[in-house]
User: Fold these one by one.
Assistant:
Number 1:
Amino acid sequence: MCRWLVYSGSPLLLEEILYKPVHSLIDQSRHARLGVDTTNGDGFGVGWYGVGEVPGLFRAVGPAWSDRNLHELAAHVSSPLLLAHVRSSTGTAVQQTNCHPFRFGRWLWMHNGSIARFATLKRDLMLAVDAELFPAMEGSTDSELMFFLALTFGLRDDPPRAVARMVGLVEAVASRHQVAEPVQMTVATSDGSTVWAFRYSTRHESRSLFYSTEIRSLRLLHPEIPALRLISDESRMIVSEPLGDLPGAWNEVPESTCSVVAGGEDLIHAFHPEPPA
């Protein structure tokens, strides 16, 4: 599987988020604690919002822990909204176009999990992608296909419903092919102003996902940490696994939910797939 994180809040250098925490995403690329695989070395990617309409994107096929270009970039790029991912392939090729996050216009998308027996379901799912969107698909992963199905079903207008329709379709196609428990996912997507994060699996035993405690509460819990005074109240993180062991800093995202982060407001809604009509 994979590990990922989202940061939203005060502009920070990427290295402050990717490298400096005790159990940073770079550390998780070698020493994941809660993932299916300890090592996530089948490529990585970073997407960030800053100057311009389209988010920046840097992806590579090597392991994140040894990529000098990533380290150099992280020391010089600052962003108020960052999505980062380290990959452990579930069977598709290790190539740049299969590295997360995936981008379409202002939208970024990344995924941890899999579609069971993807090779069996792939053709039917591909045919459901909008013909105008299809040429923009570059890779061969189930994760990118999930993204383009969500775009087909209205991600740009109503992300929760679009993802619900996407999952509903995957489960319906899997049922026709007698594939049990097809969906396993934690997904993050953003348009540059709002972040949506989903934790769902058909068997209701989803991969780990956590969100950070609000900064004001953390300042009260840990007045001894100066860095907490430098981050704005609206700063938030969503992570596959905690970036350290600071007491009170992390909370588990509930099973079968959609979390929304926008301007420091945190909302968590129940998530249910929507089967095709």
Note: The helical segments are 14-18, 25-31, 68-74, 118-126, 142-152, 159-176, 215-221.
Number 2:
Amino acid sequence: MKKFICTVLTLAMVVGSLAGCGSSSSKETTAASGAATEVATEAAQTEAAAATGDFDTSKEISVNSREDGSGTRGAFIELFGVEEKAADGTKVDNTTVEANITNSTSVMMTSVAGDPYAIGYISLGSLNDTVKAVKIDGAEATTDNVANGTYKVARPFNIVTKDGLSDVAKDFVDYIMSAEGQDIIEQNGYIKIDQNAAAYAGSKPEGKIVVAGSSSVSPVMEKLKEAYLAVNTNADIEIQTSDSTTGVTSTQEGICDIGMASRDLKDTETGVTATTIAQDGIAVIVNNENPVENLTSDQVKSIFTGETTVWADVQ
């Protein structure tokens, strides 16, 4: 590339010399010189683009957020300060109105994977190589860093129940909190809540269990379901994936036996009890073509509130 640019610049000098000698018309000389300069400029731009992987930092940031009611959104906006208290004490979600709203973890990942200029957030346990997790304040998004407190963007995974739980639902909860259940949680990229849990010693009762709620919790719940049904063939488990708020209200209304919530209960969510089964980090994700490797917490907040709108401002 450098040799090409030098050749083009030499051509421009030759054209300029010819102009001085009067060997061609002024208009022809000017046009030739301009063309040479344009080629040199384009060549330099091409070389610069190659150095950054053709990522155009002047492009607008495509912000992707989860829907209202999502536990991941609730935890994200709280942890990054996107949610703030108004003068009257009410909480205000300042997520930019320009954000693309996705209704599940899988849709979020697909959206970011398909747009070089996109940014979003997902459960750390759901992260795969279709997208890239950026460091936050210099800390890599890993389960070890969540466990040791280095990576601070983390939240609980809760199951929600109310009084009158059936024997088989109680037994499934016991399995989740057992050594076997906690190991499954850890094996799937989450942080177990009890390092010294006792082995499962359930009675293997018969019956159906309906579990409903958070799309962040449901992947690991599917793994727990599979393992539990292997030891208790008398049980039948149905998992309905939606969001944390639906998981809580469905439990309150008796629509499901166990709710899933990727956040703590709100003060207004009464009549049910939350039990933390795991800890999970929230990964801030970008497209694999994006050269950005690290963002500060303030930069993330600025992006998701709409204050920062182009990638050049976060380089």
Note: Residues 1-33, 39-52 have pLDDT under 50 and may be disordered.
